[in-house]
Amino acid sequence: MALKNVIGIDHAVIAVTELDEAAETWKRLGFTLSLRGTHSAKMGTGNYTIMLDPDYIELLGVISETDQNAPTRNFLARRGDGIERIAFTAVDSAEGAEEIRSRGFEPIGPTDFERPVAMPDGSISAAKFRVFHWPITEAPGGLRIFACEHKTRETVWIPELMRHANAAKRLKQVLIVTPEPTKDAAHLSRLIDREGHVEADGAVTVASGDTRAAFVFVTKDQLTSRYPGVPLTGLPDRGGAGLVIVSGDLAATETALGANGVRSGTSLCVPPAAANGTLVAFVTG
Q1: Where would I find the H helices in 131-279?
Q2: Contacts of 12 (CB under 8 A, 6+ apart)
Q3: Does any domain span residue 228?
Q4: What does R_g of the chain's alpha carbons equal in angstroms?
Q5: What average pLDDT score do residues 152-156 get?
Q6: Residues 175-220: pLDDT tens digits?
Q7: Which residues span the domain enclosing 101?
Q8: Would residue 1 count as lying in a domain?
Q9: What are phi and psi for residue 119, nearest 5 degrees?
Q10: H/E element, 25
Q11: Average of pLDDT values for 11-23?
């Protein structure tokens, strides 16, 4: 039975060593970014967001060392830039934490934090969140997962931030490379009570929610076959590898990407080396 308080992928967290440089990289790819945000002191992190609908991408950097960001620091030391974790939308984080506890997984949190937000009218508001994590050891395919309750959606999904020159609309898939797609997909299925589906090439897809992006577990060979001609240098042997994004206009996407874009079959791709260790693939709906 699917979790009642976790309703699908909310956002992808890309951990980066140089936050402002990463922001410039993603701007060059045609994305509109929020102003730089600074989280509550106990978090010790800052971010830029790339707002889509109903989800988004977060570029996350460490500003000061705290207990809360130790896993992110460890990730960057081990791998460098890349997809560190995936957030689900939490309807109620406290109840969601109890749901996973009842299934035998000890939650981390819930934790409350916020960051200031400059609104379009010039006023300063705040984006407020309550999150809980599955245990750090429960990382299917090497990808940590957590759930995020948005207390102030109006200060996160700002219309001016949701229009992108590259015509990005929403996340369609999160790609995870692993030598054992079946095993790691089954691990995620146990964590979120969602069944996996084996694809024709042997990759395994796990839905995150009825109207949200899906997880796809693939071997490196399967990923290479799916995106011929795209250099995949820089991806881990096991971990978050890429984001498939629905474009509202692939011609606009191609123009915005310029020399960074690689056409591969019906997709327009940005190699990991040009997107902070993340394969970015644009597709039609």
Answers
A1: 181-192, 220-226, 250-257
A2: 55, 56, 57, 58, 83, 86, 87, 171, 174, 240, 243
A3: yes
A4: 18
A5: 96
A6: 999 999 999 999 999 999 999 999 999 999 999 998 999 999 999 9
A7: 6-162
A8: no
A9: -85, 160
A10: helix 19-28
A11: 98
